[in-house]
Amino acid sequence: MSATAGQGRPAVPESAASRTRISVEGLDKLFKTADGELLAVDNVSFEVKQGEFVALLGPSGCGKSTILNMVAGLLPKTKGAIRIDGDDVVHGKINPKVGYVFQRDTVFPWRTVEANIGYGLEIAGMAKAERAAKVKRAIELAGLAGFDKNFPRMLSGGMRQRVALMRTLIMEPEVLLMDEPFGALDTHTKLEMHKTLLEIWERERQTVLFVTHDLGEALTLSSRIILLSARPGRLKEDFAVTFARPRDAVSLRETAEFGELYSHIWHSLGEEFRRTKAE
Ligand SMILES: Nc1ncnc2c1ncn2[C@@H]1O[C@H](COP(=O)(O)OP(=O)(O)OP(=O)(O)O)[C@@H](O)[C@H]1O
Ligand SMILES: [Mg+2]
User: Fold this and answer.
1) Residue 189 maps to which CATH number?
2) Distance (Å) from CA 276 to ligand 2 centroid
C-alpha cells in the first residue's frame, strides 16, 4: 500500500479535536538512593487525546518507564499532576480503564495460551462460554490459532509477547500503556508485532502511550512522538507523525517521508544518546 498521501505534514495532528484522556503537568520524580538523590524526571508536561497513539521516545535511563509507571499509578510521583479523564491518578489504585503491557513478556508459565489470555476475564468473573468465545477471537487476531493449548515454554519470544499483548487487550482497556513491549525481540519479529498492533489499533483506536527508544518503531506506530532529553528526562520536542493510515509496517519504512522525518528526529535523539554516553 502507499503510506504516503501527499507531502509534508498537515498542521493539525490526527486527533487534535478530541478530548484529553491523559494529562501530565509539571511532573518530577526524585529517587532517594544510597548515593543520594537522583532526579529522574524533571518538569514533564504533555497530554494524550482520545484515540491518539503517542510514543514517548528517549535514550536508555532518561526516565521513560518512570513516567509510564507514575501514569499507571504504580509509582508515586514527587511533584506535579497526572490525570486520566480528569481524575487524579492515585498511587496504588488500579484504574479499570487502563491496560499495561510490560517490557518483558509476563505470561504465566503454568498456564496455556488460552488460559493466559483469558486470565483477566476469569478474574473478572466472566462466564466460561462467553470467555471462551472472546479468547478464541483474541487468539485468531494475534495469529496464534492452533497454539491455544500450548504452554509458554513451547512458544517463541514473539509468540509469548503476543500472548501478553492479547491478555491486556482482551480486557478492552480504553487507555493502553506500553513499556517497550517489543524491546527484547529481533527485528523481524518486531515488525510482525508492529503489523499486529497496527491492525488492532487502527480498528479499535485505543488511547495509547507507548514507551520506546527505537525511533523506527515510534515512527511506524504513532501519531505523535514526544522526545525526552537524556536524564533527567525533560520534554525536548513534540513531533506530529501524520503518515496515512492504515499503515504497512514494512513498506512505510521505504517511503521518502518516513526517511525524512527519521533523519529529522534522529538528529535530535542522537544528541541525547551522546549526552547519555558522555555521563
Ligand atoms: N527505584 C529506583 N530507585 C532509584 N533510581 C531509579 C529507580 N528506578 C529508576 N531509577 C533511575 O531513574 C533513571 C530513569 O530510569 P527509567 O527506568 O525510567 O529509564 P528508562 O528511560 O525507562 O530506561 P530504559 O530505556 O533503559 O528502560 C535511571 O537513572 C534509573 O537508574
Ligand atoms: Mg524503561
Assistant:
1) 3.40.50.300
2) 14
Please give the distance, rounded to the nearest whole angstrom, from the Cα atom of residue 65 to the centre of ligand 2: 4
SS3 content of the chain, % helix, strand, coil (to 5): 35, 25, 40
Q: Whose CA is nearest to atom 1 of ligand 1?
A: 31
| Ligand 1 near 76 CB (within 6 A) | no
Task: For 179-216, write each residue's pLDDT tens digit.
Answer: 999 988 888 888 988 999 999 999 999 999 999 999 99
- Ligand nearest the Cα of residue 178 is 2
Phi, psi of 221 (to 5 degrees): -95, -40
Residues 71 and 182 in one domain: yes
- Same domain for 152 and 266: no
- Which atom number of ligand 1 is nearest to the Cα of residue 69? 18
Specify whether the CB–CB gap between 15 and 260 falls below 8 A: no
* Total-model pTM: 0.90
Angle, helix 128-141 to helix 187-204, in steps of 10 degrees = 120
Distance 63 CA to ligand 1 centre (A): 5
For residue 208 the three cell numbers come to 495509547
- The answer to whether 19 and 233 are in contact (CB under 8 A) is no
Task: Summarize pLDDT for 3-18 with one digit per residue, the tens.
Answer: 333 344 444 455 456 8
pLDDT digits (tens, 9 = 90+) for 68-121: 999 999 999 999 999 999 999 999 998 999 999 987 778 999 999 999 999 999
Question: Are 179 and 260 part of one and the same domain?
Answer: yes
| Nearest CA residue ID for atom 7, ligand 1 | 31
CA-proximal residue: ligand 1, atom 12 (nearest): 40
Nearest ligand to the CA atom of 232:
1
Q: Range of 25's domain?
A: 20-97+173-278
According to the model, what pLDDT value does residue 15 have?
A: 47
